[in-house]
Amino acid sequence: MAQAARRVSKSAREVYRALKNRSDYFINKVHSNPESLGKIDFAHYKTALPGLKMVDEFEQAYGKVSIPYPKDPQDVTSKLNQEETKTLADSANLVKQLESEKVLSALYLKKLDELPKLADITMEMFYDYFPWTNPIGEQPKIFPFTPEFQPENATLNESAGFNRILRKIGLNIKV
Question: Rounded to an integer, what distance in angstroms lies between the CA atom of residue 127 and that of residue 129?
Answer without folding.
Answer: 5
